Amino acid sequence: MRHLIIVLCLFASCAIACEEAVRDLLLQNYQQWQDANNRNYEYILTKQCFCAPEYTQELQVTVFDDRVTDVVSTDSGEKVSSKVFDQQLTITEWYELALDSLRHEHGEVKVTFGEGTWYPASIYIDQHKMRADDEYTIFIKQLIKQ
């Protein structure tokens, strides 16, 4: 059912109804995420954007006590630069960013969820449809609770 809402939104003629469906799905899953009290975990993140390669590499993000504590490149196993580290978010913060982005009337947000998961599998955010190259998509996979 979750996938169906997202697919329908892609083809919906009424943008307001689509935004409401995305927001409702986000809020529902965000509440389940919070209820599960996920504060210590690792996940793999990739970002698709018009960015330098250091920002689009696959990363392993470690979260402890609901704060990002470590970020390493999955290719090299080395810690990333402080510039890249500072841009990484917890799953909670990704939810909050997506919800906040939905409030901007000129932007667009699309979210997908994996089967049986409460965390987003992907989040597409376009801050402003009339601006070029400000959109990006993040992909989250292999969440491991600690």
Which fold name is given in CATH as the topology? outer membrane lipoprotein receptor (LolB), chain A
Q: Identify the CATH architecture.
A: Clam
Structural class: alpha+beta
What is the H/E string? HHEHEEHHEEE
Question: Helix count?
Answer: 5
Spatial strand order of the main sheet:
3-2-1-6-5-4
Oligomeric state of the chains in view:
single chain
Number of strands: 6
CATH C-level: Mainly Beta
Count of separate structural domains: 1
Distance N to C terminus: 29 Å
List the uncertain runs: 1-8
Q: How would you describe the shape?
A: globular
Specify the biggest β-sheet.
6 strands, antiparallel
Radius of gyration: 15 Å
Provide mean pLDDT, rounded: 85
- Strand proportion, as a percent range, falls in 25-35%
Query: Helical proportion?
Result: 25-40%
Report on this structure.
- This protein has one domain (2-145): outer membrane lipoprotein receptor (LolB), chain A (Clam).
- Helix content is 35%, strand content 31%.
- It has 146 residues and is of the alpha+beta class.
- It has a six-stranded antiparallel beta sheet.
- It contains five helices and six strands.
- The model is unreliable at 1-8 (pLDDT under 50).
- 15% of the residues are buried.
Provide a concise account of the structure shown.
The protein is an alpha+beta fold.
What are the SSEs and their pairings?
Elements: H1 2-11, H2 15-35, E1 41-49, H3 53-56, E2 59-64, E3 67-73, H4 82-85, H5 91-102, E4 108-113, E5 120-126, E6 136-145
Antiparallel strand pairs: 1-2, 1-6, 2-3, 4-5, 5-6
Helix pairs in contact: 1-2, 2-5
Summary keywords:
alpha+beta, outer membrane lipoprotein receptor (LolB), chain A, 5 helices, disordered N terminus
